[in-house]
């Protein structure tokens, strides 16, 4: 009798142990909705679930390196910077994952330089997407295919290169130029920018970090890595937020009074305040000649 009771107790303990193990496996395997069947966590909640373990700088109890973007832009700050964003697409984790692909972004120069660069980037993507509230252009009738001046980036049949992503990247030559840096042929599949948030943020950062033959990168301007030439000084192109607007928009918004450029500057000042950094000088581009 005593032996039978012991066997029953052992059986009960085994069942309890198995259930506990299954429960642990279930918790560890749960993921974001949209990745198969079974229990899931909505996208933004999943973002909050994983970001502390994936990006220590986002955890208030962690002590991350001050060089990380996650340290300067915490999860709560990201939410406050983009309160009206498309939460299911533009997640905090997708932003940090994309930033990891551009390790100099937000980590160059002194602390003020890092914060100013992030604030400037935030201001421009705020303006371009109304606070990350939309992913692609509403008007998709134009294909934005320049086959004459940019023969090296041949447009793919049936594809359109209208504005997409945080920086609203446009034209076949920009999609083509960005492809190598983001690791995906978005010239062939431009629609990926509307379905892959990490890729979408990467293209925005590619545009931010890239220079051309006659223009510095926005990154270089905001981190003190660019020194204006005498020609630049004569054209009122000086180190500061105003020159990033000039780089991105040229004579569309610079060299004259522009409410659009003024809105970008206002957003920059707001982002700088949120990041607790002085905005610096040369914030406008109304008197600057285009590059």
Automatic annotation (TrEMBL):
InterPro entries: Glyco_hydro_19, Glyco_hydro_19_cat, Lysozyme-like_dom_sf. GO terms for molecular function: chitinase activity. The active site is at 128 (proton donor). One of its GO terms (biological process) is chitin catabolic process. The keyword Ion transport does not apply. Keywords: Disulfide bond, Membrane, Plant defense, Transmembrane, Transmembrane helix. The keyword Nucleotidyltransferase does not apply. Disulfide bonds join 145-155, 254-285. Residues 74-285 form the Glycoside hydrolase family 19 catalytic domain. The chain crosses the membrane at residues 9-27. This is Glycoside hydrolase family 19 catalytic domain-containing protein.
